[in-house]
Design a protein that fits this description.
The longest helix is centred in the last third of the chain and has 120 residues. It contains 10 helices and 12 strands. A 5-stranded mixed sheet has the order 1-6-3-5-4.
Length: 491
Amino acid sequence: MDFNDDSSSNPCLKPGFQTPGANKRLRAADDNTTESQTRIIYQENLISNNKISHNQRQSIQQNDFPPITIEFKSMNNNNDRKLIQELIKEWETKNTKKLDVIGRYGFKNVLLIFARNITTLDELLDKDKWPTTINGAEYTIKFPKILPEAYSIVIKDFQITWNETEVTDDLREKYSSLIKLTRFVTRDGRSMNIVRADFNSSKQANYFIKQGEIDINYMKLYVRPYFAPIKVNKCRKCFKHDHFTSQCTSPPVCFRCGQQHSLEGGCNNDIKCANCEQQHFPGHPACPVVQQRRKQIAEQQKVNQAQLLIKQQQYQTRYNHDPNTFPHLMNNSNKAATNMCLNATISPSRTTTNQSYSAIAKSRSSGGNENIEQLMMALSSSINQQLSSFIASISIQITEVTKKMNANNDKLLNIENQIQESIIPAIIELSKIVDNISEHKDKIKAFQSIQTSSYTEFIQQFFKNDQPAKHQNTKFNQNRQVRNLTHTFLD
């Protein structure tokens, strides 16, 4: 029997309850998981730690646990029922205790063992309790990477200057079931003075929760239960978060790049979320779609809690009539007839009545206060839900308006660039052409006016110098002047 240390060295906590095994995409051998790279985001919880811890343990008892994988070193022809039967027998022989497990064959014919309760899971996680062989065959065990949240606690006042690895090594000398310490970080990546301690035994985690503190180098640090983030469902075909895999009608897409292509040869494309198209795998806690979905689930849980509180308040305010405690009132006709009987027994009956009434009034007053508190909590939860939905709708509207404003700004910038690059230079050229045309027209007019004036002066001077004799023939003189003038113009 061998143990695969790679499978259990860095287990991650169970982010929620297990999804059904039907319609799940088979994991290829080269698939990469990013569960160990997920950062922890600190979330405050307003409900009592003890109450949630009890409910948390009850919910874990009612749901499936992650499987333990058994891979045989040699070929095994037995069916899964026979192998599980032999495992239970050999376990009982070695540990004098019968296992409460179920199992089946999984991918590549590995045997998957599922614990039916958290006590059995604690025993299965103990390496020393496993038999050497199962049905005479050697095997290798792979413990789950994802453990329920009941196997972890939160340690407060863990200083930022402390190294988690060094403190883990120191604590393992005292608490051998400790696996690792993981520091909480804020959404902007800043480290916090809170860490999560993971154990391979729920008994050890419950012990620290009951104590309320843990001893680290003689320092008492407060602890509280760890509550995993809200589980967001994810389709195994299209990797959307609004439906189950069995309800999906879309074609399967690649987990890595979010595109539709053959998955046989793997994928070398860049990592791209199928929901938000950012550089991370689908379902990552930093995905805006996942964060929005978690907010919706949290709001729905608040609504359900408010409805339960209101129903509880309605049931508690119902009045149960008890005639012995509160007798019927008498009519005026028989009041006088019963005065003598009442006077005879007035002392003990009055004392008893006063005591019972005071006790009932006290209990009803205390119950009324509780009812008022519950009603206030329910109303506040309902108001918070309405405010959250209103804020979400306002945020969506603001986002849409911002998108439209950005689009309009881009259009205006494009128009401005076109005006600067094309329209203004064309207007300048047109103005130059118009100026040139106007200057040319002015020159032509000036030239024409100069020629006209010169011709007029010439004609006047000609007629003045070439004046004919009075006694000559007028018609002959006129003809001669015209001929001379014509020759002059032609010259």
